[in-house]
Structure formats: C-alpha cells, structure tokens
Amino acid sequence: MKITDVRTAVVEANYDWTFTRIYTDEGIHGTGESFLAPGLTAIISDLKPLLIGEDPRNVDKLFAKMRWAASGAGSMGGIIYNAISGIEAALWDVVGKHYGMPVYGLLGGKYRDRVRIYADCHAGEALEALDSVMVARHPGWLPETEKSVIAAEINHPVHGRAFGDAEADEIFTPEMYADRAREVVGSQGFTALKFDLDVPNPYTKDTHSGTLTHAEVKFLTSLAEGVREAVGDGVDISFDLHWRYNVSDAQRLAYELEPLGLMWLEDPVPPENIEAMRRVKQATKTPVSSGENYYLRYGFREALEKGALDIIAPDFQKAGGLLEGRKIADLADTHYVAVAPHCIASPLGTLASAHVCCAIPNFLALEWHGMSVPFWNDMVTGMSGDVIRDGYIEVPDAPGIGVELNEEVARRYARPGEPFFGE
Ligand code: MG
Asked: Which of 96, 118, 185, 239 satisfies CB 3.0 to 4.6 Å to 400 for a cystine?
C-alpha cells in the first residue's frame, strides 16, 4: 500500500479544526485532526513530499521521518508537531481501516469501554470563537447577540498575561459559575468539570505582572466555591489559570483552594520553568496539572522526573499524535502520574484522543471543549446519537478512528481561503 496524496480542510468553529486526509493506492483514506496553529496547512503541505510513495502502515517510521526532517528545519517541538500529529492520526485511521481494527486495538487494546469526559465550561460564558493566535473573531454561526461581547474582547489575547480588563469585559460572579455548573451537570450528566479561574475582575491592579492582590485571591476563590457548592462532592472540579501568575501568588491561590478538593489546578505558572512549577506543586495539597504546551515524551520528561506535576495534560492533536500519546502516558505511569488529556478538537480529534484514553492504564478524564459549538455533534457520521452521552464517550469499534467527517457540515463551516480536501 502506498500514500498517493495528502490534503487538508479547515473548519471555522470555536477554534480552527484542521483536518488532514491521507489517500492511498488501495482506495482507503484516513483523516486526522491537528491543534490549531498559524500557517498550519502550509506546514502540512510542506511535509507532504516526505509521505508520498511511502507505505502508510509504517506509522512509527514515518513519524520519525517527519521528526528528523523537522529537526533539520530547526524544530524539536512547537507547531510543526501540530501538523505531524494530525498526519499521524490520519495514518492510524488508514492502518485501522486496512486491517479492520479500531485504533485502540492497534495501541494495545482497551482498559475501558467508556472514556470519562470532563466538560470545559470556560468562564461561564456561552459562546466564543478564537483565531490561530487566540484573538476573538465572529464566524457566521455565532449569534449577533454575542458579537458585542466579542468586540470588547477582540483586542486582548485570551490566554497568558495582559489579557482583558475589568472595564471592557464581563465581570463573573460565583452565582454565574454555580448556575453554569448546575446546568452542565444537570442537563448532560458530566461527572467532571473545568472552569477558567484567571478571569477579569475588579481587583486586578496590573494584568502584565502575573501578580494577584489579596482581594483578587479571595474573589477567585469565591468563584471556585460557587462551583463546589453547586455540584456537591459527587462531581470533580478543576480550574485553569493559563500560565498567568508568578510562583508565590500561584501558591497563595492554590492554598486558598485546598478546602475545595479540586481534581486539579491547571497551569498556575508558565510551563517552561520546571523548577518553578515544582515549587508551586510542593507548596500545596491542590493537585497541579500542566502539559498542553509540551511536545513529545521529551517535553514531559523533566517535569515527570523532577516531580513537578501531579497530573499531565498532553494534547494528542499537537504533542506528536496517538502513538506518541501512548508513549507519553507510559512515561507518566513510571512516575505514577495520571493523564488528563487536553482537547479542543472536533468530534473526530476527540474520538482519536478517546482511542488513546481507553488504551492507557493511567487515564483520568478527557477534555471536551465543544459545548459552545452548535454543530459539534453533526461533524461526524458513524456514531448513533450524540458523541458524548451522560459524560462519557463509548469508543467506537469500527475500523480506524471509527467515524467519518460529515463533509456536508464541514463544508458549510469551512474557513474561507483554505482548501477543502483539494477543492
Ligand atoms: Mg488549559
């Protein structure tokens, strides 16, 4: 079997869902998804000559071929791996279809039939759409009523420091967080939730400094208390800080959150200084998680060896793909660390991640970031009913990833100016 073509399509959803399709001389094609990145489809197109004429069944060898090519081009990590991850998942989809095996079977088989999903509830707001550098935008499917909110946010990157300000942005309250938590648990049966906690508030003195005022620590803690009170002890809750704070203020906030028994506190400090992360972790009983900005096993190695994290959150649409995901999880397991994969993908990428999640022992929960997208469930065919039911994904047994992209729906929301699988 030989690879004959590699094509891409981009759907303008809450993020850019970027799909790579691998075509073969046996008529089998496979589709994978990448985490967004600036210039992503151009990178995938540049990688294509490395794949044409190769046997798609040699997934690990082809992964290594792309990896060493990327190294020669100066990348041992970073967004070139967003491209490689989507290609790698598409290869597994081909291989599964060829051998009549679901991807989880190719990764070692199942520990579990259902994958527990945690719902990302953002900061309690209903809808958002962000471009490839996390700036708000308004695609056609967003209602007009959301556009004024987005217009206020449009000059602020959403993650990291110096975003938003309390005058321009909505001020959240514990009641809003509690209402959102009750709604998500009540209507959809989730057993695990995540909220953003690094939100604009009236107590911020400086959004550039990574500092928190005392009033701000109390206010952010009150938002988390609102969620815990709303859902009780039967639902696991976690909060994301998007690498925004310094070590001592992250420690203060983590300490205040201890009585709430969080599942985890995510990215309290920027991810690249492992010793700083370790200091936050060592100072608190609140479990600390990070990993959405790490690439490959090598990106997780130091944090795991130094005991800097309680939970890791690799994103299989960017960290190197599905087999690399399995390898990252195995590395974490040698340190008795659980894996809660980050995921902002369409159902196709989410299901690809779910195959990894059911094949690894140390799985905790997989993220679902699609609540704000009205057509999320419509993006794939081959599942009976919704992709996520009662807070779980039942991993399909059909060959490959087990679903196909619904091209009619994908085309309707295709990003203008991007090719749609060669059209
Ligand atoms: Mg995060």
From this structure: 96
